[in-house]
Structure prediction request, 272 residues.
Amino acid sequence: MEATRKKEIKRKAASFRTKCNVSQYGIIDLFKSCEGCSFKLLRYPLGEDGNLGFTLKKEDDIIVFTNTSSRLSREIFTLAHEIGHVILHMESIDSFIDDSVTISGRSTDEMEKEANYFAACLLMPEDKVREFLDLEINDFKKNGLSAMDIARIMSEFSVSFDMVLNRLENLGKIDCIQKVQLESERNQRRVSNLLRSVGGNSRLNEASKEIDIPHEYIDYAIYNYNHKAIPMETLEKVLECYHLTIEDVNDRIVQYSEAEDDLDDLIGGLAD
Prediction:
């Protein structure tokens, strides 16, 4: 990635960050910060083997989806990655589907690399990382970092242990040998234990299983059912998310029988 492009992405990430509720260092709730943005955010547990997220342009709407079956820290990074696609790429591409390859940085696709860089700049800006190391870690330059220090950074910036290591390495704060040592210490002590030891946010290491679907999605589901695009069972599952039943919308639906389907298939179909 060229230096000029990296600078442009960094500026755009900083601009989006100004719209977020930020603590001294990290974004407090990236999901809530997306309210009122130019895209609709859907959160649903697709299962651990499902795609981590996708971004889809559908007519005049942009839909961002995150899989809440993944660990919260990974879901937050996935959302930041998808926001990167919205801001950087949606004028030329209609959809992006992201899995463990694209989110972990193993993809060779340039747009996926850019979205990951955007996410890193959004969640862990270089100036805030430097400030945290200077003010919150005792004798960082002399003593280096421990796995407990990484857990503190992880909790403060609401990111994963691996993302902290990758970001610190990319910023030149640790080298590859120190990274391997910290990974080894992490494997011995486990992230959940490290978070508890530092009084950190243990939810970051757990899947939220959250279901959060915009209210407009009811209209979309009813429209698809009436045009025989989804079965009754899928419509019922959508309505359950809003604590509604078929009887509550009976005057808006066409009565017919259809083979059973699943909400997972509907959401997957949005990304096709």
